[in-house]
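A reminder from the course coordinator: this example appears on the midterm review sheet, so study it carefully.

Given structure:
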C-alpha cells in the first residue's frame, strides 16, 4: 500500500474553525470574477494531484468536472480525482487564512477554497476521500448560521469508502453570485486560457457543464518581411526571450504575430507556476510601451506568453506583483523585439495581408448600409438645391467611365442600393465596396446613365460607385478596428454624386471640387438637426 497521511483511519468527528469565523462572513464582498473564483478550486486540485504524483507514478491524469446550474437559486459542483483532503490537513483546510506548509505551488495563501466558496454561496459542502483511507468525510458550511451563532465547531460526517478512492467534491448552493448567460461562456474560455499549460501537457482534463475544455492555440503568421515582397516566408515568433531583472527574478517566454488579428484576444498572458495570473482570454496584458494605442495594427496582432519566477501575486491570484520591475522589463523586451534579425514590432505594424478577413468584411458591410441610409435621406434635398444654384463654368474634364467593372473576387463585394426621387428625376444609387481586388483603382464611378423608368415613365438616373478597400491607400491609413470605413465610404459616395452632377452641368475640375464640398455638407447632414 502507498504510504500517505491518510493511512491510519481517524475517527475525529468535528473540526475547530476558530478564531477566524467572522472572516467567512465578509468574504462574499471580495472583488472576484467568477472564473478566478472557480480557479481557486482548480488550483487546489492541481496542487493535490502533483503531491500525489510525487508519491506514485501509476496514477491517471487529473480530471476536474465543474457544473453550474443557474436555476432555483443556483448550484455549483466541482469534482476532482486528486489526492483528497487528508484528516491531518482538515484543521488547516477549513480554517480561513491558515497557510499550507508548502507554499511553492498553486495553493499558497490558505484562503482559496474558503474565500471562493464564501464569495459564491451561503451554503457549501465538501466531501473528500484520500488514497489509503477507508473513510469518506463530509463537512457542511452554512455561513448565515455560522456567523449568527458564532459557531466554532463543525461536525464531520463519516461514511465507509474504498481505500483506493481519492477525490474531492465541493457543492455550493444558495448562491450570492449566479453565473448565467454569456458569463457561462466566458467562464469556459477563461478557464481554458488560465490552465492552457496543464491542458497542453495532458496532465489535466477539465470539463465545464459536461463539455471538455481545450485551449484554442493561436495560429502564428507565416509571411515575408513587410519590405521584402520577393523574400522568403518566415515564421513570426521568437521563442527564446529571457529577461533577468535581479538575482532570483526572471521572466522568460515568447512573442509572436497572430496570423489573424484580434482586437479582443491579442496581447500577452503572464504566468506564474504554470498558471495564468494576468492576460486570460480577452483580458490580455497590452502595455502601451509595446503595443501602442488601441487603433494600431500591433495592438491587434502581437501575442505572447511569459513565465514569472521570483514574483508574488495578489491574494486572488489575478494580478502580478511587479515589485517595481515592470518598466525595466518592458524596456528590455522592447529592445529585444527590435534588435533581432526579425524585427517583430516593425513587422506587426507594417505588414499587410492581401485579403481582408471575414470580421473586416462584416464591419464594411454594416458601415456600407449605414452610409447608404444617410445618403438616401438627404440626397433629394442636396440634388434639388444644387441644381437650383447656377454655375457659370466650362466643360468638365472626363472622370466618369461607364466601362463594365471586372472583379477578381475571393470575397464577394458588399453592395448597398437605394432609390431616391428628386424634383426632376429618380436616382438609383449603388454603392459597392470591393474587398479583394488589389489592382483596382480606389474609386471607380460608372456614368450616371439617364433613361426612362419603364414603370413610372419618369427620368431615371443610374449611378454606380465602386470603392476598393483592398487598395494600398485604404490599407495604409485604415485602423484595425474599422473606424475609418464610414469615412472612406462617405467620401467615395460624395465624389460619385458630385461627379454625376458635374457631368450634367459640364463643370471644370475646380468647380467639381466646390460641388463636392456642397454634396459632403448636404448629403451627410441629417435634416432637422
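Designed residues:
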Amino acid at each position: 500500500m502507498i504510504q500517505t497521511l491518510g493511512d491510519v483511519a481517524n475517527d475525529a468527528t468535528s473540526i475547530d474553525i476558530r478564531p477566524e469565523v467572522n472572516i467567512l462572513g465578509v468574504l462574499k464582498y471580495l472583488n472576484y470574477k467568477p472564473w478566478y473564483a472557480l480557479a481557486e478550486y482548480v488550483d487546489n486540485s492541481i496542487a493535490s494531484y502533483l503531491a500525489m504524483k510525487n508519491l506514485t507514478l501509476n496514477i491517471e491524469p487529473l480530471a476536474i468536472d465543474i457544473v453550474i446550474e443557474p436555476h432555483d437559486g443556483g448550484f455549483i459542483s466541482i469534482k476532482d480525482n486528486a489526492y483528497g483532503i487528508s484528516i491531518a490537513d482538515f484543521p488547516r483546510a477549513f480554517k480561513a487564512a491558515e497557510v499550507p506548509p508548502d507554499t511553492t505551488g498553486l495553493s499558497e495563501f490558505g484562503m482559496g477554497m474558503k474565500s471562493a466558496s464564501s464569495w459564491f454561496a451561503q451554503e457549501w459542502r465538501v466531501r473528500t476521500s484520500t488514497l489509503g483511507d477507508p473513510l469518506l468525510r463530509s463537512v457542511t458550511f452554512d455561513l448565515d448560521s455560522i456567523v449568527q451563532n458564532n459557531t466554532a465547531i463543525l461536525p464531520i460526517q463519516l461514511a465507509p469508502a474504498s481505500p483506493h478512492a481519492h477525490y474531492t467534491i465541493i457543492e455550493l448552493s444558495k448562491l450570492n453570485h449566479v453565473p448565467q448567460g454569456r458569463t457561462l461562456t466566458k467562464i469556459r474560455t477563461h478557464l481554458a486560457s488560465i490552465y492552457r499549460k496543464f491542458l497542453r501537457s495532458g496532465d489535466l482534463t477539465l470539463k465545464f457543464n459536461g463539455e471538455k475544455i481545450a485551449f484554442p492555440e493561436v495560429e502564428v503568421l507565416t509571411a515575408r518581411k513587410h519590405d521584402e515582397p520577393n523574400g522568403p516566408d518566415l515564421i513570426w515568433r521568437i521563442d527564446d526571450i529571457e529577461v533577468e531583472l535581479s538575482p532570483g527574478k526572471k521572466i522568460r517566454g515568447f512573442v509572436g504575430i497572430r496570423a489573424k488579428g484580434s482586437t479582443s484576444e491579442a496581447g500577452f498572458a503572464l504566468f506564474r507556476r504554470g498558471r495564468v495570473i494576468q492576460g486570460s482570454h480577452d483580458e490580455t496584458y497590452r502595455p502601451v510601451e509595446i503595443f501602442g494605442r488601441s487603433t494600431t495594427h500591433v495592438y491587434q496582432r502581437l501575442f505572447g506568453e511569459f513565465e514569472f519566477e521570483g514574483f508574488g501575486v495578489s491574494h486572488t491570484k489575478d494580478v502580478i506583483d511587479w515589485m517595481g520591475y515592470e518598466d525595466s522589463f518592458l524596456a528590455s523586451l522592447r529592445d529585444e523585439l527590435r534588435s533581432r534579425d526579425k524585427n517583430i514590432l516593425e513587422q506587426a505594424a507594417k505588414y499587410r495581408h492581401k485579403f481582408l478577413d471575414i470580421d473586416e468584411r462584416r464591419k464594411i458591410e454594416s458601415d456600407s448600409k449605414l452610409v447608404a441610409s444617410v445618403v438616401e435621406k438627404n440626397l433629394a434635398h442636396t440634388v434639388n438645391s444644387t441644381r437650383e444654384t447656377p454655375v457659370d463654368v466650362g466643360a468638365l474634364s472626363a472622370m466618369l467611365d461607364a466601362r463594365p467593372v471586372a472583379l477578381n473576387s475571393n470575397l464577394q463585394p458588399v453592395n448597398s442600393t437605394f432609390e431616391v426621387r428628386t424634383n426632376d428625376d429618380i436616382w438609383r444609387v449603388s454603392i459597392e465596396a470591393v474587398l479583394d481586388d488589389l489592382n483596382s483603382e480606389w474609386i471607380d464611378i460608372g456614368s450616371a446613365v439617364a433613361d426612362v423608368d419603364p414603370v413610372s415613365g419618369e427620368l431615371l438616373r443610374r449611378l454606380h460607385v465602386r470603392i476598393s478597400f483592398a487598395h494600398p491607400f485604404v490599407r495604409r491609413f485604415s485602423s484595425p478596428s474599422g473606424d475609418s470605413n464610414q469615412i472612406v465610404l462617405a467620401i467615395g459616395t460624395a465624389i460619385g454624386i458630385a461627379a454625376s452632377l458635374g457631368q450634367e452641368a459640364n463643370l471644370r475640375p475646380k468647380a467639381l471640387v466646390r460641388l463636392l464640398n456642397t454634396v459632403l455638407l448636404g448629403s451627410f447632414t441629417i435634416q432637422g438637426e
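Residues 1-9, 391-410, 524-529 have pLDDT under 50 and may be disordered. The domain at 14-212 is CATH 3.30.565.10 (Heat Shock Protein 90).
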